[in-house]
């Protein structure tokens, strides 16, 4: 998703395209966690937290790799499950 959004936003310039793509995908990432029968009930706090986490995972993806982003998400899930 991020790579596609960057490609669509290239007219903004490279740096701004990446920022816009990560911001847009992080909002979709947050929204996806509230959808469906198993989604978390919507609160502004939960949505905002997930949007920031989505931006962090998006930046990890863009500047490192998909594998690093997946590992970071799994590590977060393990820490939450252990708490």
Give a description of the structure.
By secondary structure, the chain is mainly alpha-helical. The chain contains four helices and no strands. The mean pLDDT is 95.
Shape: globular
The SSE string, one letter per element, is HHHH
Q: Would you count the extended β strands for me?
A: 0
Helix amount, in percent?
over 70%
Structural class, please?
mainly alpha
| Major sheet size, sense and barrel closure | none
Determine the number of helices (DSSP H or I, runs of at least 4 residues). 4
Low-confidence segments: none
Please specify the SSE layout and strand pairing.
Elements: H1 2-8, H2 14-32, H3 44-63, H4 66-82
Helix pairs in contact: 1-2, 2-3, 3-4
Attribute tags:
83 residues, mainly alpha, 4 helices
TL;DR?
This protein is 76% helix and 0% strand. The chain has 4 helices and no strands.
């Amino acid at each position: 998703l991020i790579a596609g959004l960057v490609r669509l936003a290239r007219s903004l310039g490279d740096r701004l395209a990446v920022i816009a793509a990560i911001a847009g995908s992080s909002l979709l990432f947050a929204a996806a966690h509230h959808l469906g029968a198993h989604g978390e009930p919507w609160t502004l706090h939960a949505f905002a937290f997930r949007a920031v986490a989505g931006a962090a995972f998006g930046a990890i993806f863009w500047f490192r790799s998909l594998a690093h982003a997946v590992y970071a998400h799994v590590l977060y899930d393990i820490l939450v499950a252990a708490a």
